[in-house]
User: Fold this.
Amino acid sequence: MRPDSRLARHLPHKMITLACAALALLVAPTTTSAQTDQLVQWTTEAGGNGHWYRYLSPVSIFEPFSFATAQSAAEASSYNGLQGYLATITSQAEQDFMNGAFSYLLGFGGTGTAWLGASDAATEGEWRWLGGPEAGQLVSYTNWRPGHPVAAAGFENYDLLALSIFGGSPTTYGWVSVEQSGGALGYIIEYGNGPVTTVPEPGPLGLLAAGAAAFGMMVRRRREDAARG
Ligand SMILES: [Ca+2]
Assistant:
């Protein structure tokens, strides 16, 4: 019997399970509450900033994301060593890139909204980016849909920013202000705020490395056993 086939036969079930789990993590979205998970880079070759963007949709249209949920999820995430935050669109070029990158993902029946990272909650009418390299800066480039931003009125302040996509021909993209109690059918994370400063959770690659190390130990132990026996 060849040694490798004997090894495979005796490969502990636990080890196979660990390897499968690690592989599943590698291909699965890391945000469990979201359905769609696509990462796209705005490359410097294409005139971009090199940042990565990720659009996440809810598991159903009946479970929109609150702004707070989206913001905390974005800021708790990282990719490629870059800190995440709710996306900031600071130029027409960045808007154009995102329109192209995410149009096919957004919404149901071709219409949808996704949270972006700005608010005028602090001072009504004064929109500022909340995170990323632009944190605290006034929103200068704008792409408001007609009628937006909605001025404060009565009980509700329309303090939050979402990218809205209206299906049809041509598809139109624009920003809408959303009330504090509102939800959006997705959010966009931008990864570009410098190196991650917090200690990351063990990622898929870390788990794979741990699995490989454990596998190596097992093989070594079997060889030692064989040498003794
Ligand atoms: Ca940006």
Summary: Residues 1-11, 13-33 have pLDDT under 50 and may be disordered.
